Amino acid sequence: ILLTGKLTTLPITAGSKTKPDKTKRMPSVVVDLYFESSPFINNTDNDKCNSYDGKNMALFEEEMDSNPMVSSLLNKLANYTNLTQGAQEHEEADDDEGAKKKAVKSPQMGTFMGVYLPCLQNILGVILFLRLTWIVGTAGIMESLAIVGMCCSCTMLTAISMSAIATNGVVPAGGSYYMISRSLGPEFGGAVGLCFYLGTTFAGSMYILGTIEILLTYIVPKAAIFVATRKEDEVDALLNNMRVYGTCCLALMSLVVFVGVKYVNKLALVFLACVILSILAIYAGVIKTAFEPPDFPVCLLGNRTLQNHNFDKCLKTEVIGNVTVTTALWKLFCEGPELNATCNDYFKYNNLTELQGIPGLTSGVISDNMWGDYGPLGMLVENTRVASVPVADNSQDVYMPYVVNDITTFFTLLVGIYFPSVTGIMAGSNRSGDLRDAQKSIPIGTILAIATTSIIYVTCVVLFGACIEGVVLRDKFGDSVKGNLVIGTLSWPSPWVIVIGSFFSCCGAGLQSLTGAPRLLQAIARDGIVPFLQVFGHGKANGEPTWALLLTAGICEIGILIASLDAVAPILSMFFLMCYLFVNLACAVQTLLRTPNWRPRFKYYHWALSFLGMSLCLSLMFISSWYYAILAMGIAGCIYKYIEYRGAEKEWGDGIRGLSLNAARYALIRLEEAPPHTKNWRPQLLVLLNVDADQVVKHPRLLSFTTQLKAGKGLTIVGNVLEGTYLTKDAEAKRAEQNIKSAMSAERTKGFCHVVVSSNLRDGFSHLIQSAGLGGMKHNSVLMAWPGTWKQSNDPQSWKNFIETVRETTAAHQALLVAKNVDSFPTNQDRLGEGTIDVWWVVHDGGMLMLLPFLLRQHKVWRKCKMRIFTVAQMDDNSIQMKKDLQMFLYHLRLDAEVEVVEMHDSDISAFTYEKTLVMEQRSQMLKQMQLSRTEREREIQSITDESRSSIRRKNQGGAHGVSPSRQSSQMEDTQEDEVAKLSTHCPSLSDTGSSSQSWIFGYGYPCHLNVETGPERVHMTWTKEKLFTERNRNREPNANVAVRDLFNMKPNQSNVRRMHTAVKLNEVVVNKSQGAHLVLLNMPGPPKNRGGDENYMEFLEVLLEGLNRVLLVRGGGREVITIYS
């Protein structure tokens, strides 16, 4: 085994030593060799042994739990399918309930069936059949081509951008919403996703309205519930019929979608066949008109087009059996059938003319239809080539059977009505889960579908203009051709091909909208980015989005109640255009940022094309309807802000995050070029926070004060230091960071958090002061709390760290703010009443003292406070002149403040000051004595071991003469180690490092014999408790007496007395003037250059601040921070 490495002959059982085969006894040592434990291989777990082949990958075994082997990763990827459980699978889950679910086949759809045909079906629809002829007649061929060109260019450019995004990795079902949200972030994704959802829902309304319009106008006009008795009521009657039938149709379709989506999927091919057959019928009809135009006569009275519903012959009178009789048309314009009846003036003076509605391809009618004919609501549809006699009174025209405009027409309106006919380009990307090779099929299929439909639309515009009479084109509902669908008059073999085809096409499109929209809403709800939509993420047991379907039906009903196809079309145009705009933006942003993950397989894109597409979308929005555009953008903006404010935090590696990073980098590089001018200076704070043992913030009011001082402007870094090493304190550091961020959020402090783990607090604060921030975004001021417990603390490091921080900020030319009694500072919810912020300006260090109250008063907590400035005058100062100068200085600084000069006369040093200084120095001396007595015990045991070592050296000196220095030193080290070992052997308690020095000297009350063997001789030393006490007291007594005698005979240092005198006198003045102030700002004296007086410095500051509630000590950073210049 050892030589070959083959382990197959050993039957191994998991979790125990192996039991060798009885026929072949193996030495147990060999097996143990294989199973020996090591830092890398833990062979007690048999499963882990199987996770890699043999020992080839043993080095990486520790990684196996978190990082899979490449072979297993590739194996998982090979079996991966991105087929999401769509509508069809939901229904299969319903059918197979209780039975074992059949395995989902790998997707097999190619480009043609999977992308091209669905896109074709979604793009070609209701507008082509019901409105394109009217658009061509109203706008003319040239302007119609411009509309088609703009809209098709917009979708083509969007398709190029979409292809780039869709081929940059796997796009699950969710289509455009998924692409935008993962490219531009949850805020944009949610806003655009909901816009796309609303667009799809209103598209459902539009298709249902189209279905009902075809049904009531062209298939069964007699089914109308509301019938107009007067001509002027016809429009209202039609709208009411649309509302009633539309609501019934919506309810029926919603029921179909709810009960069986699989039927919708199965009928999709039938609906597609209807669309293709209808288009083929149109082209066949156009070709037929070239040699045999169909017979659809149009009757004109003068040059006005008549509604050809209630008469058969375009004649005023006709001769039947040599008798002239009036026709049905006469009765429409005259009061009776008699020849002498009173008739309408226009009818009386103008002749009737009959034109062919479809003159044919070779008739030359194209030249008449080249330019537009816009007009207001109620304008008569006229043929300007036919002569007419005008009359004075046209007031009765509205009651006559003329063809009129039912809406006011203008170019931009037609853009909005036409645009929905080019939407539907996302159908391919929405089905990416069903494709064999989505990254190849989506670009080819979508772009080919758009190219095909663009060609169909362009040729239809030209052919309609070349084949159909202008008055018929402008007749929206085909009233002039006996109520036929205008496009149907052109088709071959019968108008019914188009009517039935377009009816089923609209039905199918409506059903697909009602199927797709709820799933889109469900995807957004399940992403959890919009909290109030969470309920719509649930559905039936099979995942069918029931609640989302109900909401979709409700919104759809709003569109149906509008009832006009022409009014609904611009609404959904807005939402689709906004969606396309952001697809283009996503592609442009990713391309310009050159994100490492941006590697689309589709290579024929460019950021300039995406920007062009984006600009075109924006232009079309405002061209179509500026007020709808503003409304749609407002809705999207509200959703964006809502998600930003309330939504769940999502990190999708989006482009906006990358854009922010690039912008930040650019700004930081620009910032670093030069330090900020005095006019731009504001405190960029590093807040030094402390946390307790549970990593909870000790002084949250420090963060409140930061918020009030900054008001969200500038830089705030909240720093904290944990003592230890990063490897051991990693979890605590993360917990502290989370707690600090929570506290910052609660106190509304906008900024960054930085937790440092250092071997000691002193170094940690030093590192923060030196390295916090980045480039030009570095702090220039440090804010910290006064160490309130420095007197009670046994550890002098607490105040030593404070003083060293003061020194370091001074060395780094940074300002320092120290808040005393910080826990009594106001919260952000408090509103301080009438009061003052008092500034005691003793020395000028850059104007920080004047700037801080001004910044504080910007916040609502301090807004009602007034600012008072006190300055101190000495004996030889002119206090009146000082006050005038200071008032003028403040006037130039544009600061409102009361000014007061306080005179401090030279006075004798009081006994109180002398005594206070003496007590301070005695306390300092006493602490040093206590510190000495604490270390004395360690020194005594050290002296014992030193003595034993010296005797060892003396005994060994003779034997070490011929040894080299290095050997000698190594021998000495060995001897010391032996000595410690022997000490440990004879005194068992020595090995207990946690015991006190007394306990390990006395072995817990028993005498301990220190036996040190030195070659042939043995030194025997016995120490008892009594002997040690006697020896120690004998040495200590004279020293202790001297120390106590010195303590009571001390005379205070004159320098300290002077400083204490200043502190006491200044404190008296400040307390006298500012005890009732809401906040006192005071110059902070610098620490002594000689570190020996650090303790006294803390005492001076304590005396200076005594009796004051809220104090902010301020120390400037050595530069001017406020200026009188503009």
UniProtKB/TrEMBL annotation:
<keyword id="KW-0868">Chloride</keyword>
<keyword id="KW-0769">Symport</keyword>
<dbReference type="InterPro" id="IPR004842">
    <property type="entry name" value="SLC12A_fam"/>
</dbReference>
<dbReference type="GO" id="GO:0055075">
    <property type="term" value="P:potassium ion homeostasis"/>
</dbReference>
<keyword id="KW-0633">Potassium transport</keyword>
<keyword id="KW-1003">Cell membrane</keyword>
<keyword id="KW-0597">Phosphoprotein</keyword>
<keyword id="KW-1133">Transmembrane helix</keyword>
<dbReference type="GO" id="GO:0007268">
    <property type="term" value="P:chemical synaptic transmission"/>
</dbReference>
<feature type="transmembrane region" description="Helical">
    <location>
        <begin position="407"/>
        <end position="427"/>
    </location>
</feature>
<keyword id="KW-0406">Ion transport</keyword>
<dbReference type="Pfam" id="PF03522">
    <property type="entry name" value="SLC12"/>
</dbReference>
<feature type="domain" description="SLC12A transporter C-terminal">
    <location>
        <begin position="1020"/>
        <end position="1126"/>
    </location>
</feature>
<keyword id="KW-0813">Transport</keyword>
<dbReference type="GO" id="GO:1990573">
    <property type="term" value="P:potassium ion import across plasma membrane"/>
</dbReference>
<feature type="transmembrane region" description="Helical">
    <location>
        <begin position="493"/>
        <end position="511"/>
    </location>
</feature>
<feature type="transmembrane region" description="Helical">
    <location>
        <begin position="144"/>
        <end position="167"/>
    </location>
</feature>
<feature type="domain" description="Amino acid permease/ SLC12A">
    <location>
        <begin position="115"/>
        <end position="290"/>
    </location>
</feature>
<dbReference type="GO" id="GO:0055064">
    <property type="term" value="P:chloride ion homeostasis"/>
</dbReference>
<feature type="domain" description="Amino acid permease/ SLC12A">
    <location>
        <begin position="403"/>
        <end position="686"/>
    </location>
</feature>
<dbReference type="Pfam" id="PF00324">
    <property type="entry name" value="AA_permease"/>
</dbReference>
<feature type="domain" description="SLC12A transporter C-terminal">
    <location>
        <begin position="700"/>
        <end position="818"/>
    </location>
</feature>
<feature type="transmembrane region" description="Helical">
    <location>
        <begin position="110"/>
        <end position="132"/>
    </location>
</feature>
<dbReference type="InterPro" id="IPR018491">
    <property type="entry name" value="SLC12_C"/>
</dbReference>
<keyword id="KW-0812">Transmembrane</keyword>
<feature type="domain" description="SLC12A transporter C-terminal">
    <location>
        <begin position="821"/>
        <end position="957"/>
    </location>
</feature>
<keyword id="KW-0630">Potassium</keyword>
<dbReference type="InterPro" id="IPR000076">
    <property type="entry name" value="KCL_cotranspt"/>
</dbReference>
<protein>
    <submittedName>
        <fullName>Solute carrier family 12 member 7</fullName>
    </submittedName>
</protein>
<dbReference type="GO" id="GO:0005886">
    <property type="term" value="C:plasma membrane"/>
</dbReference>
<feature type="transmembrane region" description="Helical">
    <location>
        <begin position="571"/>
        <end position="593"/>
    </location>
</feature>
<feature type="transmembrane region" description="Helical">
    <location>
        <begin position="547"/>
        <end position="565"/>
    </location>
</feature>
<feature type="compositionally biased region" description="Basic and acidic residues">
    <location>
        <begin position="934"/>
        <end position="950"/>
    </location>
</feature>
<feature type="transmembrane region" description="Helical">
    <location>
        <begin position="605"/>
        <end position="629"/>
    </location>
</feature>
<dbReference type="InterPro" id="IPR004841">
    <property type="entry name" value="AA-permease/SLC12A_dom"/>
</dbReference>
<feature type="transmembrane region" description="Helical">
    <location>
        <begin position="268"/>
        <end position="287"/>
    </location>
</feature>
<feature type="transmembrane region" description="Helical">
    <location>
        <begin position="447"/>
        <end position="473"/>
    </location>
</feature>
<dbReference type="GO" id="GO:0015379">
    <property type="term" value="F:potassium:chloride symporter activity"/>
</dbReference>
<feature type="region of interest" description="Disordered">
    <location>
        <begin position="929"/>
        <end position="978"/>
    </location>
</feature>
<dbReference type="GO" id="GO:0045202">
    <property type="term" value="C:synapse"/>
</dbReference>
<feature type="transmembrane region" description="Helical">
    <location>
        <begin position="188"/>
        <end position="209"/>
    </location>
</feature>
<keyword id="KW-0472">Membrane</keyword>
